[in-house]
Amino acid sequence: MTQAGDSHGWHWDDYTYSMVWVVDAPADPADGGGLEFVPNTTWDKDQPRIDWHLSNNEILSGPVAPGMAYLLRADTALHRVAPLRREGLVRTVLVYTYGSLDDLTREVTHETMEDVYPEEYT
Length: 122
Known about the structure:
7 strands, four-stranded antiparallel β-sheet, three-stranded antiparallel β-sheet, alpha+beta, 122 residues
């Protein structure tokens, strides 16, 4: 993320867990780039109802800082990266996704990765 307004919009991940290593992020949480999430939500791929989840649940947030890492239950936490609020800010991360035993026994599709990284799937 390198421009004002850049965000990874509201979504769930295709696999159960995501480990996010923060390489670079704005120093001031008011500048954006932090994690926002709604835990214990269900992703119905046919009707995600994101607006409903955001209107009917508390949105939790957490600042991020270079050098930190966080583990997210990414398949049941609706989440996003808050938009960068001004030019000159950067958020760089390494994201690892991990499947659970349940992920090995069901069909896993990759709509989320296709939305976040569309150039990789064209």
